[in-house]
Amino acid sequence: MIYKIRMNKNDFFKLHNRISAKNVSIDGEMVEFNVELGSYNIVKESGYHYNVESSLSIKFKSFMKKYYLLLMGILYLFAILYINSYRVKDILFNINTPINEKIDIKIRQTFKHFLFYDFCSIDYNTLAMEIRNEYIEYPFIDIYEKNNNIYVEIYSYNENYPYDTKGVEGNIVAKKDGIIESFYIASGQGEISKNKYVKKGDILVTGNPIVKGTVYAYTFDKVTIEINKNTTITVKTGNFEKYSELDIFGFTFNINKKCNYLLSDITYKTKFNLFDIFYIKEIVEEEKNDIIKTYNEEDAKILAINTIQDSFYNNIKSDKEKIIDIYVYNVSEYDTTYSITLITKKLESIGYVL
Hints:
Strand content: over 45%
Structural class: alpha+beta
Order of helices and strands: EHEEHEHEEHEEHEEEEEEEEEEEHEEE
Largest sheet: 8 strands, antiparallel
Number of strands: 22
Shape: elongated
Number of helices: 6
Oligomer: single chain
């Protein structure tokens, strides 16, 4: 700490060999100088008269005297914000159940009332565990606070729900990393909660010994797809002809056939059959052509996105599963192909029985 001292110059010269003074200035019979704490103690114990013109404590006192109202206002604001973080507006349930009122009363018993508001500073995870142990007939109960509301999410049995695992022995295990969005457990003990991050191989639901349920999570995948710059596709030209085919003892004759298409789709319809030794078929032949399609970079991106979407939606088990977003991470161009790397965010079922 630095002290700015003002004292008689004669007294100063009697002390100057014993102290370490800096920024010395003489003003008539007086002298001003700066010293640190050690030298200040020597001056203080010398018995000579002096004045402390400036020090950190003096500056602090001066600052507090000048701005104390502003500081009080800031402290009051922070106190209000801190208190408000524990204020409770309402208790909200995700579904109506016979135990809603009992849980509501149990939570409100923990409130502290101050002025016009209710406040709660309990550990919601501990409270949720207590309530789960009390109402074991429900597969899972979660309690959390958000925006000054307390949310109670109760998961109930639903036998009509399309569960991924249907009453088998074992545990439901995560097949990939993800963030839990929701879960439906008809049999077994849940080891998860909403918004919990789980890794591949983590146990999600333990069987006792039967397990039945579905676990949905937000997942993120990085996928690379190779797209050929040129590809051959076969399309119908719109040209077609109809004719009849006669078969007698294995000999075939075409009646009224005029065109010979290089590529075509042929459909048959039997009009007459006599013991498989004589029959007449009506034939429709549609012409097709091979077309070479060339993809630029934008076309390749669209095709890669469509490939991911088709693969996902052709294999989902529930309408709840969906692709949230697809982001093109990188595009590499080679002589004959594009290599498209994409990052996908999906909501999907991640559980399997092990």
